[in-house]
Specification:
Isopropylmalate Dehydrogenase; 2 domains; two-stranded antiparallel sheet; binds 3-isopropylmalic acid; binds magnesium ion
């Protein structure tokens, strides 16, 4: 297969983890005889500094021409601490999602047996947890009408029936391929937009008689996720709730550095870690590259390259088992491995296979 990949490394630790994702992907493609090419493009603060736009037209074009985008992270404190900043790196990410029509963000939350103790939750509670959060990604408050005055500001949480229907379809498709249990997360006791979500879900549920559909308020879901994470199989929710719940989900896995995601929709799909740009760690070779590398596994799986995806996952599992780990998940007394060294080990594992 020929694969043309747009590489958007972005800011902070982005470029460091990006390199390791690209190397792992390249190694797997060599092994399986796929012809892969990578084209780098600017986004985030790096793009603002270079051309004054966090998602330049040229980057959009490179993404459109590609089969998939391997994205890393955007964000820079020099914008965070300046409420007057006219452009922000995050706008680049949002522009990419919107312009590529990436309405479905797939965020799997899994545990690794050898890392269960890294979760702040009790081992017996998180062990075996395995669910997918399907986050709506191009609607809701992120993109609704806004006003930002000095004394008054608002964001609008608007959803159309069509937007809700298409994300629920994705969620039901996932549920059908998994344990056939879908939890629709909303705030229908308070929000009109949530009541639309629930109504549409209730209308669609009979089309999926093999799936058990249940409905949960987001506050309750936030509690249930840490009280009984194994309850969930597939959860589907709006943009803002999904953003919040998936950070919470990373506490089940034990590190933000372990969660990949896929954003799919109308155009080129994007594969990216769920974590941010961790500017404090920039250039220190301490960021965990596994979320990025696991995004590569999701990329392969998206193109039905199951064996290739499996090899990436196997390499990641093997690195963890061999205690080849970045500091935040290293065992007490374990050797020091940085972003590069973990990447090296994984590439070598793939090459030797
Ligand atoms: C995420 C991130 C982004 C979001 C930020 C960086 C804009 O937190 O992908 O979860 O809020 O969607
Ligand atoms: Mg987030």
């Amino acid at each position: 297969m020929k694969l043309h990949i747009a590489v958007l490394a972005g800011d902070g630790i982005g470029p460091e983890i990006s390199v390791q994702g690209v190397r792992a992907m390249d190694a797997v493609c060599r092994k399986f005889g796929h012809e892969v090419t990578f084209t780098e493009a600017l986004c985030g603060a790096a793009a603002i500094d270079a051309v004054g736009d966090p998602f330049p037209a040229e980057t959009l074009e490179i993404c459109r021409q590609a089969d998939a985008v391997l994205f890393s992270a955007v964000g820079d404190p020099k914008f965070d601490n300046n409420p007057a900043a006219k452009v922000r790196p995050e706008q680049g990410l949002l522009a990419m999602r919107k312009q590529l029509g990436l309405f479905a963000n797939i965020r799997p939350v899994q545990t690794f047996d050898c890392l269960v103790h890294k979760s702040p939750l009790k081992d017996e509670l998180v062990s075996g947890a395995d669910f997918v959060c399907i986050r709506e990604l191009t609607g809701g408050m992120y993109f609704g009408e806004k006003k930002e005055g000095d004394d008054y500001a608002y964001d609008t949480n608007a959803y159309s029936r069509a937007e809700v229907e298409r994300i629920l379809r994705v969620a039901y498709d996932y549920a059908m391929r998994r344990r056939r249990h879908l939890t629709v997360v909303d705030k229908a006791n308070v929000l009109a937009s949530s009541r639309l979500w629930r109504r549409v879900a209730q209308e669609m549920a009979p089309q999926y008689p093999d799936v058990t559909t249940d409905y949960m308020y987001v506050d309750n879901a936030a509690m249930r996720m840490i009280q009984d994470p194994r309850f969930f199989d597939v959860m589907v929710t709006e943009n803002t709730f999904g953003d919040i719940l998936t950070d919470e989900g990373s506490c089940i896995t034990g590190s933000m550095g372990l969660l990949p995601s896929a954003s799919t929709g109308e155009s080129t799909p994007v594969f990216e870690p769920i974590h941010g740009s961790w500017p404090q760690a920039k250039g220190q070779n301490i960021a965990n590259p596994l979320a990025q590398i696991l995004s590569v596994a999701m990329l392969f799986e998206y193109f039905n390259l199951a064996e290739e995806g499996r090899l990436v996952r196997e390499a990641v599992d093997a690195s963890l088992a061999a205690n080849v780990r970045t500091p935040e998940i290293q065992v007490a007394g374990g050797a020091h491995y940085g972003t590069r060294e973990v990447g090296d080990w994984i590439v070598e594992y793939i090459n030797k296979k």
